[in-house]
Amino acid sequence: VLAATHCTLTDRVHIYRDEQMPEALEDALAAFESGVHVAGEATRLERAPDLGVDDADPIERLKTFAMRGADWSQPRPEWGLVNNAALILAPRARTQGKALDGRVFLHEYHPEQDSQGKVLEGLMMAPMLVASWINLQYYASTVVPGLYGAGNKLLHSVVGGHVGVIEGNSPQLRIGLPEQSLRDGEKLHHEPLRLTVVIDAPRERIEAIIERQPVVADLVNHRWLWLTRMGEGGLERYSPEGWQPVAV
Known about the structure:
- The chain is of the alpha/beta class.
- It folds into two domains: 3-70, no CATH class; 86-147 and 188-245.
- Helix content is 33%, strand content 19%.
- It has seven helices and eleven strands.
- The strands form three sheets. A six-stranded mixed sheet has the order 4-3-8-9-10-11, covered by helices on one side.
- β1 (3-7) and β2 form a beta hairpin.
- α6 packs across α7 (214-221).
- The longest helix is centred in the N-terminal third of the chain and has 22 residues, at 26-47.
- The chain is globular.
- The two termini are 40 Å apart.
- The model has no long low-confidence stretch (mean pLDDT 94).
């Protein structure tokens, strides 16, 4: 296992090589690094218009992205996870080549290798929950900003180190996301939607996990997110009343 860091601003990935790594893996690692470099360039090019970055040269574009992160006067160095809309737990082949516009969390999952459902249970109890928390924070900060947002971060003062922030001279402790994470200065940049989770797995496996895990049951039964599976005849959505086909 090798550690790595991914800079979400520049989309560069740095791999920490281990002296004990077998030399036989060096070629595979070099190929991975080359692929990550190409993917990073493509992602920066895709994200550039939303950030007002118009450099045509890839190297200059990378420099501009990096400078945004080092500029303390820049209120929006990146858009983070804005416009998140879905999580897909399925083989990568299911989504390969599809334009998801940076709105979908992807997690590799092969149902045929998980007959007991333990891997899927771990995914629904960890990545799915985290994706839901992220989605709900963006959602609440957008639709009820006065209660669940954090206001204008240019007016923030930190309270008690890690307790929270206040805005301007207001004594109210602000939570959630600031306006700069949701708006581009003129209009909303985030579209508030409930998270759609798409799973490639049999009905019985998903239902058993919902029955065993109350926290998952609360999310799906109370419709804090939409739970969908890739069925034999197409997509179908879960509800306590049963699975319903989804028109695409």
